[in-house]
Sequence to fold (726 residues):
Amino acid sequence: MAGLADGLRDVVGGRTAKPLAEHLQVETVGDLLQHYPRRYESRGELTDLADLVPGEQATIVAEVKSCRTVPGRGGRRGGRVEATVTDGRETLTLTFFNQVWRARDLRPGRRGLFSGKVGDYRGRLQLVNPGCHFADDADDREAAEIFAKELIPVYPATSAVDSPRIAKAVKVALQMLDPLPDPLPAEIVGNRTLLPFDAALRAIHSPEDLAEVGRARRRLAYDEALVLQVILAQRRHETAVLSAIPRPGTADGLLGEFDADLPFQLTDGQLEVGKRIAEDMADGHPMHRLLQGDVGSGKTLVALRAMLQVVDSGGQAVLLAPTEVLAQQHYSNVRELLGPLAESGLLGGSAHATRVALLTGSMTAAQRRGALLEIASGEAGIVVGTHALLQDQVQYADLGLIVVDEQHRFGVEQRSLLLDRVPGQRPHLLVMTATPIPRTVAMTVFGDLDVSTLRERPTGASQVVSHVVAELTQPRHMDRTWQRVSEEVAAGRQVFVVCPRISEGDSAEGELLEEAAEAPATHAVLSLVDELVAGPLAEVRVAAMHGRLPAEEKDRLMARFAVGPTAEDGLDVMVSTTVIEVGVDVPAAAMMVIMDADRFGVSQLHQLRGRVGRAGQQALCLLVTKADPESPAFERLQRIAGTNDGFELAQLDLEQRREGDVLGAVQSGRRSSLRLLSVLRDVDLIQDAREDAAHIVATDPELAEYPLLAAAADELQQSSDYLEKA
Fold:
């Protein structure tokens, strides 16, 4: 007998175990039995030879009449076996390619059951590589009916390890498998009407019917959801028992003066989320909150108000940005929004004023020393920076709040370098994302965070008008595209042009959708710049931006672009890769042209077009594609162009992308522990698992009473890195 942790070699033999390990990373009995079927095939109705119909699945009972082996051409390996079978009235040809060993079984006079798709070759009906079952009772009608109705599991396979070989190994493993204990508490199995674990694992590989497949899948997917939710519940519990210095603010401090001076009214959503954040930070336990909002929803303003509350309470707030360009931009925006409130100790500074410090890797030694001194002394109540803020030499006077912008760009280990600065006392944490997250993804990936969502856009915020341009079938529209770019520049506005690649022959910069082998080549920044400067944009100031440029050069170009088109050293058109996707704020940018738009993901396209129209003016985004107007890719672009609702587009993104892309890659080449759970399909199941996990962890946070559940949680944390996104 065998257990799930046993190696495969002792169960199925070395000749089978070796290719499973090499090609599918299947090394243990558990790995094999969790390599679930992708689908199931039916052998087809038991059919007389006279009633066979080409194209249909069928099972027949017949006797082998003759058999011959045809060698491969030129003496090559492989060859084929051809057998003629009969039911006493009609005959049928069976053809087996690369299965010469079949000749041993297909002896004349032997009866068997044969199943497959009926084909027609040169006017003769045949079965190609059919399933075979030889038994003494093959002529028994009842036994044949059972064989015909049996479901055949089809497994994810490779050319080296095909599905039948996997199925054979699974059958052997199930025969040798010890009865398995159930990792779930009996009350959960009963309350959720779940199959026992052992029964579910066996049924998904050898089901009686599709209804049993559904019951088995539901149980095994629930296990995956529960293990994940237990990990997240443990994280919530760990955060809840930590202590934090309450930061309630004051009634007449920085925040009050800032609110009183705002030249516009906060949205209801900003007020509601701000109130919740304020309550969290006034508590003696650390806040751990995710703030998500569509492009232009005002997340940064909400975060700034939270930072001012912390400063009013005597603490410091850190704003961590993923790039120097974005950090510099945040620093400038915060200072501009605060005005005199950011000029403590300076002539004209407010009585409640603080200082805003910037710390990045490219600062001079003198600039760095000055910033470090302001941070260590507490003179700077607000600190903005990049990864440079994580270094040990950065000392904080009283770190009370960490705000992480575009949080998916930072690993949990990086954030912990700040969170763990004061043993036993944790600062509050607010992480922000401008990529809207469907509810199921939020529950699955960010379940250890309290989630706040900004859905409203501030009054006066512009909507970007988007259109799809078919580059190959509508060349005149492309001419009009570059003409429109010139018109925008002439009107004093700026334009982004985005390409997937830097130069001809390069791979795409950033994560793009897979490209078919026959698809036309995608545009590249450097070659397109040359074409535009030599052609339709000859009178326009054009620059190229991409990831291979030194950081100083990128900063210099973005600074020239950001100052606006009226500046003597300004730029009109920026041709770039996706390095401008996140956070770049150029008020005069009112148009974006995205080349090969079908090669970008839904959320990425939405993020990119969010870079234009940020000053409230009407903005235009043209999605240029070589895709056929009748293709799904073109239809997807039409759907994107038809809405500015990021949450609607996030749902579309989830529907169209592989969930592995949504949840993240696995580390060290190991297989993902989420094999059956679907964040799109299993909303109710995930919610049930979340409730059960919360109850389990509340009563037994260390899972002492649930050793099998604890072991599964440990394995998941070791094998997957999408958990680290939280």
Summary: The longest helix spans residues 210-241. Confidence is low (pLDDT under 50) at residues 664-671.
